[in-house]
Amino acid sequence: MFASAEVARNCAKGDVCLVQDLGTGLVFNRDFRPELMQYDSNYQNEQAVSGVFRGHLKNVLSIVESHFTGQSLIEVGCGKGHFLELLQSAGFMITGLDPAYEGSNSAIIKEYFQPETGLHADGIILRHVLEHVQHPIEFLEKIRDSNGGKGKIYIEVPCLDWISDRRAWFDIFYEHVNYFRLSDFYRMFGHVFEAGHVFAGQYLYVVADLASIRIPRFENGVPFSLPKDFLSTIDRHAQRLQQQGTTRSAIWGGASKGVAFALYMHRAGATIDLVFDINPAKHGKYLPSTGFMVHSPEKVSQLLPPGADIFVMNGNYLEEIISYTNNRFNYVTVDHEYI
């Protein structure tokens, strides 16, 4: 998030060129440059402001409890600390690591994970971190080695198959260098305790033995490819906006999906007027590249006429958004095109 529209429009930018390594089967952005990324207090990715997402975290908690109860934990990349504190409230002894943390919880160290940190635990929590790391197998090996070559790990990442099936082009963005499928984790670990999908299929999770991490092999595997019509809804949404003329429209969701959606609409010559987000840390700040200001939900009735289009970036939040806005608008769930 940026303090001014001008700074936001002039932010660092990079290319995304997805490729698949046919030796390992892993899909990643070949053109990723880690030096362009900076995770600090301006990186606002906390979703737990939403009751819907807090419900998801309770589901994750139940998975963690079934595998880690009575064990010490380390959460690598704990973000703003909400899930760590949920684990603490459930009785877990846990230490967190994240340079973007802004609070005062003494259990959280405001640093990146490094082997030199010298932390050890029975289990590792790695939620929405591995997709950001340029060399994921090496990263997992470092965690294993720094943890004495043992322990369980819980990993949660976005699901590439969900992105592909839903034609969710707005879910491919620069912060995510890696894009995983469930089969990848069965090749990455020799011993998987449990694996599956959460958050209505958007995310994958795996509980595995850290000691069994290995370089995956893709022998005789079917190469992955996105559908030929993967980007087709860009034109559809752009045409809808262009046909509206002077009628105002908005994006609901000022996180990475909203950033990507706004950028593609701008490139297609379509106009989005407003962006709303439930996270107060985003209010009054500006989206990268397009420079849109993010408004609070309380302003929606002041800024949008009844019946205006609100493009909902994540359909999981649709009922919550309708409730916030008293069902006064037309809601376009962009990730429900191919259900």
Question: Can you describe this structure?
Answer:
The protein is of the alpha/beta class and 339 residues long. The protein has 2 domains: 27-212, Vaccinia Virus protein VP39 (Rossmann fold, 3-Layer(aba) Sandwich); 232-333, 3-Layer(aba) Sandwich (Rossmann fold). The chain is built from 10 helices and 15 strands. It has helices at 5-9, 51-68, 82-89, 136-146, 160-165, 182-188, 232-244, 256-267, 300-303, 318-324, and strands at 18-20, 27-29, 73-76, 94-97, 108-109, 123-127, 152-158, 178-179, 192-198, 203-209, 249-252, 274-276, 294-295, 309-312, 330-333. It is globular and about 60 Å long.
Topology of this protein?
Elements: H1 5-9, E1 18-20, E2 27-29, H2 51-68, E3 73-76, H3 82-89, E4 94-97, E5 108-109, E6 123-127, H4 136-146, E7 152-158, H5 160-165, E8 178-179, H6 182-188, E9 192-198, E10 203-209, H7 232-244, E11 249-252, H8 256-267, E12 274-276, E13 294-295, H9 300-303, E14 309-312, H10 318-324, E15 330-333
Parallel strand pairs: 3-4, 3-6, 4-5, 6-7, 11-12, 11-14, 12-13, 14-15
Antiparallel strand pairs: 1-2, 2-8, 7-10, 9-10
Q: Helix and strand string, N-terminal first?
A: HEEHEHEEEHEHEHEEHEHEEHEHE
Q: What's the domain count?
A: 2
Instruction: Determine and state the CATH class of the largest domain.
Output: Alpha Beta
What's the total number of strands?
Answer: 15
Strand content: 15-25%
Rg result: 20 Å
State the secondary-structure class. alpha/beta
Average pLDDT works out at 92
Instruction: Count helical runs.
Output: 10
* CATH-defined fold name of the largest domain: Rossmann fold
Describe the global form. globular
Unreliable sequence segments: none
Distance between the termini: 31 Å
